[in-house]
Structures are given as structure tokens and as C-alpha cells.
Design brief:
Blueprint lengths: L1 H16 L12 E13 L2 E8 L2 H4 L23 E6 L2 H8 L6 E3 L5 E5 H6 L2 H8 L9 E5 L3 H7 L8 H15 L7 H9 L6 E7 L25 E10 L2 E6 L1 H10 L6 E6 L7 E8 L4 E5 L6 E15 L8 H29 L18 H6 L2 H5 L4 E11 L14
Parallel strand pairs: 1-4, 1-5, 5-6, 6-7, 13-14
Antiparallel strand pairs: 1-2, 2-3, 7-8, 8-9, 10-11, 11-13, 12-13
Helix pairs in contact: 9-10
Length: 416
């Protein structure tokens, strides 16, 4: 009975001994970082740019509309101020940044990582090693490369419709998957390609557009050179190419679309192609994959080659000319024109990647690992040297299935 009474006394005292939480973290005590920019300014010095969230202002309380942000906020009204600090490591820079912020910086709501081009050319792995060990860091964050200082690009962001910086990142990546002018890449697939024996990673490029319409002989699709006026000065166009963790080159927006088409990441591609009948006339067509692709890998022996068979369904979206393309012969000629356009651009892109830049972001090539008896043999295969010399052939089949809502062509009064 005496022991039982002592036990009851201990149980009664237990709640008083365990009250409180020594490592509690209240929401109102945190400063959440939405976008984290990094730029190596010296070999042992990194500059960190953080876009902070102020929840009540992100919700629209007292905030101005998008597109006209005030100075120092990067265009998100007062809902997402920028804070900059330097340190020998990323965490030291964040700690020094916290000397001017009254709440503890927290990365658990981080949406995007942004690196400058110069930092990417020096290598991203040291920065990713630092972040990936941190418990508040996740591998689902989106990644971007800026052509120019990170601070300058983040400061220039002035969304037209979106006030939330988190939603802005999500919307930007959704549009990249729709238009195809830039890839949508997260930390996990970047690291997977980085550690792959056969593949190299890529990242989307963001740049500031000066916002003027230039007169030139050719339409340009390079980042920061899209001919447009109005909207957000910052645009996501183009791809940064890597060898291992170092940036070695870029693709423009149109090359990026064909890369994503080859990698199966672009479900529908809208093209402007020259009319097979009328010189100077362009047609708008939409194409999408219709069947599973087939591959043939011959990586050994004297007759080495890679062949890819692709099937597409096409739709005629717009026609500047007078030919209706209703007859079988006209449709067949248009199908051949679409096929030739896709084959030419895919072959040109593959030559640039494998032979000129010596990098391989063509993810379907990794399917060739089934030709190796063991992973060790696959990993030891000289991929870069072999892919730079092996012929890659694309066999494209296009079927024009939809002609739009109007079969006959509007005729001008003087022609009737």
C-alpha cells in the first residue's frame, strides 16, 4: 500500500514536471523565406538574397495590386521584402541577416532557389551540399538561374496579377510546363541527373527584359530578348546546360521546347511553320505525341547508332493563306512539312548538345542502361565520348487529324 501511494504521488506530480516545451517554435516568432537567392562573390564568400513573407499582407490586407511594386520589395507590394547579407557559408549569411530582422529566419516554407550564372559556372554542388543537410530544406524546391546579379533580377520582379510570392513561383513553373519555353526543375531531379553516369542536369533561366520592340531580320527567343512590351519585366525563357554541376552553355526558348518534347515533358507543342505551298505564308499548328515512342540503341561494334521513332497528332490552328488543306494531297504535304520541321530542329538540337556542348540532358538516352549486364558496366561506359560520335536518327510520323472549326477559307470580295 505504501508503494502504491508513492506511485500515485509520482503520477500526480508528473504533469507539473513536464509542462512547457524547451524548443517550442511559435508561428508569430518566425520569418519565413519564400525565395532564396545565392551568389558566390568570392571563393569563400557567398551573398544570400531572401524574399520574406508577411502573411497578413500577402493575403491582400492593405497591399497594392500586382505590377507596381514599391522600391525594395521586388514588386510584391510590402508583402515580400528582400533582405541581403554576406557570409562565409549560407547559414552564416542567414544568421547575419537575422540581426536586422526581429523574427527567426525559417526555410520550411521555401519555394525556390535562385543562383546567378557566374555561381553556376563555378559549380552548384557546394551550395546544394550545404542546404541538403539542413532539416528545414526539402528537395521539392524549384530552381532557377539568373543571367545577371541575383539581387537585380529578384528586385525587378513585378507580377501583373499575383501578389503572393509563393503562388508566383508555382504559376511560373505551371506556365513553363505549358508553353515549354523554359523547363520546370526541382532539386530532386536536378540531383538525380547530376549523379547519373549518362545524364547531365539542366535549369530554367530567368532574366530581365528591357521591354522594347526591336526591328530585326529574325525573331529571337533568347532569355531577356523576347520582343514584348508590358507585363512582368522578369521572364523565364531558355535553359542552362550543365556538365556535372557546372554550367557550360544555354539553349534559347525554341530549343528548350524541342528538348522538352524529346524528354516527354511537353504534352503539346504549338508551332509556326512555313506553308508548303505559299512563300512567306505561315501556318499555326499544334502537335502532341499520339503513341509510345520506340528506341533502338546500338552502342557497341562498328555500326553504332541510336534511332528514335515518334508519332504525333497534329491540328491546324490558323492559316494565313487561301489553301483549305481539305484534300488528301494537301493534307499529306502539310504533314510532311510538320514532320520535316520537327526532325530538323530535333537533329540540330541533338548535335548542339552532344557534339558542341558535350552535355547530355536527353533523359530518354538513360533507357540504354538495359543494354548493360550490370550497373557497374553502365556506370563505367564512356558516355560523353561515345555520344559525341554516335549518329542519332529521328523517325517522325505526323497525322493531321483536326482542321479547326472552319473547312472553307474566307475569300476577299474582289476574288469571289
Amino acid at each position: 500500500m505504501r508503494l502504491r501511494g508513492f506511485g500515485m504521488l509520482v503520477l500526480a506530480a508528473l504533469p507539473f514536471l513536464t509542462t512547457g516545451c524547451f524548443d517550442r517554435s511559435e508561428l508569430e516568432e518566425q520569418a519565413f523565406v519564400i525565395t532564396l537567392g545565392m551568389e558566390a562573390v568570392k571563393p569563400n564568400l557567398v551573398q544570400v538574397v531572401a524574399r520574406l513573407a508577411i502573411p497578413n499582407k500577402l493575403a491582400g490586407a492593405g497591399g497594392a495590386g500586382g505590377g507596381g511594386g514599391s522600391s525594395g520589395t521586388g514588386g510584391f507590394s510590402t508583402g515580400s521584402p528582400l533582405v541581403i547579407a554576406k557570409g562565409r557559408t549560407i547559414h552564416e549569411a542567414l544568421a547575419l541577416m537575422n540581426t536586422g530582422i526581429e523574427r527567426r529566419i525559417n526555410l520550411s516554407h521555401l519555394s525556390a532557389l535562385v543562383f546567378s550564372e557566374e555561381t553556376a559556372k563555378a559549380g552548384l554542388l557546394p551550395h546544394l551540399r550545404t542546404l541538403s543537410r539542413y532539416r528545414e530544406f526539402r528537395r521539392t524546391h524549384f530552381m532557377f538561374i539568373t543571367q545577371g546579379p541575383v539581387e537585380q533580377v529578384m528586385e525587378a520582379q513585378k507580377p501583373v496579377l499575383e501578389q503572393s510570392a509563393t503562388r508566383y513561383v508555382e504559376d511560373l513553373n505551371m506556365l513553363n510546363r505549358t508553353t515549354g519555353f523554359a523547363p520546370s526543375i526541382q532539386v530532386e531531379p536536378f540531383l538525380n541527373n547530376l549523379y547519373s553516369p549518362a545524364l547531365d542536369p539542366i535549369l530554367p533561366i530567368v532574366n530581365v527584359n528591357p521591354g522594347d520592340l526591336r526591328e530585326g531580320k529574325k525573331l529571337r527567343f533568347a532569355s531577356g530578348r523576347i520582343e514584348r512590351v508590358g507585363g512582368n519585366p522578369v521572364e523565364s525563357v531558355g535553359t542552362a546546360l550543365f556538365q556535372n554541376d557546372k554550367m557550360v552553355g544555354t539553349l534559347d526558348g525554341m530549343e528548350t521546347r524541342y528538348l522538352q518534347l524529346l524528354n516527354g515533358q511537353l504534352k503539346r507543342l504549338q508551332l509556326a511553320i512555313s506553308s508548303p505551298f505559299d512563300k512567306g505564308v505561315y501556318l499555326s499548328v499544334g502537335v502532341r505525341p499520339s503513341k509510345s515512342r520506340r528506341y533502338e540503341f546500338a552502342l557497341f561494334g562498328a555500326r553504332r547508332h541510336i534511332t528514335v521513332w515518334q508519332n504525333f497528332e497534329a491540328e491546324l490552328l490558323g492559316n494565313q493563306g487561301e489553301r483549305p488543306y481539305v484534300s488528301g494531297a494537301d493534307r499529306s504535304k502539310l504533314e510532311n512539312a510538320i514532320r520535316d520541321t520537327i526532325q530538323k530542329n530535333e537533329s540540330r538540337l541533338t548535335n548542339k548538345l552532344l557534339r558542341q556542348k558535350k552535355t547530355n540532358p536527353l533523359e530518354w538516352i538513360d533507357l540504354a542502361k538495359t543494354a548493360f549486364p550490370t550497373y557497374t558496366a553502365y556506370a563505367r561506359f564512356p558516355w560523353q565520348k561515345t555520344l559525341a560520335t554516335i549518329p542519332v536518327r529521328y523517325e517522325v510520323n505526323v497525322v493531321l487529324q483536326r482542321m479547326g472549326n472552319q473547312l472553307s477559307i474566307p475569300i476577299a470580295p474582289e476574288i469571289r
